Amino acid sequence: MNADKVLKQMLLTVALIVAMPCSLMAQTAGTTDTAKTLPADSLYWLSMPLTDSQGKHFKLRDLAGHLVLVSMFYGDCNTACPIVLENLQRTIAAVQPRDNKLTVLMISLNPTQDTPATLARLGESHHLDKMVFRLSISDNDAHTRAIASALGVKYRVLGGGEINHSTRIVLLDATGRIIASSTQLGAKPDQDFLKQIRAALKPS
User: So where does Cu cation get bound (predicted)?
Assistant: First the structure.
């Protein structure tokens, strides 16, 4: 196992430890059935609640069965986040997924300020395809940090509502495993990442 895989496993373990006390009592029989099919390194073990821009409540595991691009952002960001959104729009345009086989999940780093309404306005201002893009928030900072840790995203809240954060886009397979990622910051898609997405979209 190389260093990157060890690091990802460590980050996921830490996130699971943080999330476990908050989620253990919320597990249901349906969750148990789903868990039987999940690999040990699946992000779908994380059960922090999320709410999207339409006000719909869901959890990461609800996305199981599809490829998902996941990244983190916050609504008031005027530097890196708009670039990431542009990158993802161009990525979707380049790979042209069909039959809803690829979803883009954007999770806010600022659950105290971002709301479903503000996320909806953000999506409209960037002309995001609602059939592909899903902007969301978790319910508190602790859960947000657990998700960020699992995704390998680092961030620090500064004064004036600014958040200093790393940028990372990950590709999850149908079982929630991270199978590819990109940290390239730019409006133009990462070509190596595009190849990995296209390969994942090919029928098995």
Answer: 77, 81, 165
22 labelled ligand-binding? no
- Token readout for 118 is 């503000």
Question: How confident is the model over 117-157, as pLDDT tens digits?
Answer: 999 999 999 999 999 999 999 999 999 999 999 999 999 99
Cβ neighbours around 159 below 10 Å, total: 5
Whether the CA torsion 165, 167, 173, 174 is positive or negative: it is positive
What CATH number was assigned to the domain covering residues 3-201?
Answer: 3.40.30.10
Q: pTM of the entire structure?
A: 0.83
Q: How far apart, in Å, do the first and last CA atoms of the chain sit?
A: 25
Q: How far apart are CA 171 and CA 193, in angstroms?
A: 9
Helix (H, G, I), strand (E, B) or coil at 186: coil
Cα gap 76→53, rounded to integer Å? 15
- pLDDT, one tens digit per residue, over 191-200 is 999 999 999 9
What DSSP assignment string belongs to 62-115? Answer: GGTTSEEEEEEE-TT--SHHHHHHHHHHHHHHHH---TT-EEEEEEES-TTT--
Q: Domain boundaries in the chain?
A: 3-201
Q: 152 near 181, Cβ under 8 Å?
A: yes
Is the pLDDT assigned to residue 98 strictly greater than 60? yes
